[in-house]
Amino acid sequence: MKITAPIKTVEMHTGGEPLRIITEGYPKIPGESILEKRRYVRDNLDHIRHLLMFEPRGHFDMYGALLVPPSDPEADLAVLFLHNEGYSTMCGHAIIALGRFAVDQKLVEICEPVTTVKIECPCGLVVASVEVTEGKSGNVSFISVPAFAFAIDQIVDVKGYGQVQFDIGYGGAFYALASADQLNLDVRNSPTRDLVDAADTLSKAVRTSLKLSHPDSDDLAFLYGTILTDGRDDYSSDPTANICVFAERQVDRSPTGSGVTARIAVQHHKEIIKQDQTRTFESVTGSLFTAQAVQNLACGPHKAIRVKVSGKAHYLGESTFTYEEGDEIGKGFLLK
Fold first, then answer.
1. Shared domain check, 264 and 164
2. Which residues are annotated as catalytic?
């Protein structure tokens, strides 16, 4: 492994979910589009993901954001998302953190009381709105890419759990959505390991039983993970809890921005939530996002909506990482 320069990062979290924003040290990434850049990093620079996400510099549930030059002329910045298994197409908790980061680093023109930050993601352009008071950033909301219900009220046999009913929602990434009580679990009270085992088993069953597609690109057509919920999909002003298990059994500490988007898309499709009704979503850490459907549109053959998601990110510090030749363990490892 050869790292030619130190890799510098800014460390943040959104609702407890970490975000390691990589600002310097990556080699030049070619590609005409953001998806081409994503493919290049996956196929040629994956050793750096191992270096930064895995132990001893990271951990099993570390999450990263790599800033790259935008391909979309509308975008202020572009980002690739990194995790324990590979590269996501969308990440809402990262967008919330990157909104603050862009304002504080003056990557955009600052306007009070709200500054707009247009972020190119592999799933498309996401527009963040950052509250700014006396030059300081605060709460962030974003408007999603077109989100839609892909499959409703499906049934699958899940090994060890029996038949489970689920929906598939797209919110920049595809998720299976199912109530935890079908698996004899409670998202607020059951052990996290049990919830992870159940969600991962459901994800594997869905992947073998249902083929996904997206009208924009085949690169988007994969099941990112499963979101187990408290079953409270009907509209309420009280928070509805969920746990998102994605990639390789990775647990989101936040309510999951793209997952919340997918849940709203499915609820709107089922006509159990109306336009502009705000719902609150609670994560395993007790952190909260709010979300609402704000625009109807089409996405290929799908009736779609845009979703506004709101939350808060916080800074943790800054890091500089290097690699010493001959350090085999330092290339990165995971204990499962």
1. yes
2. 91
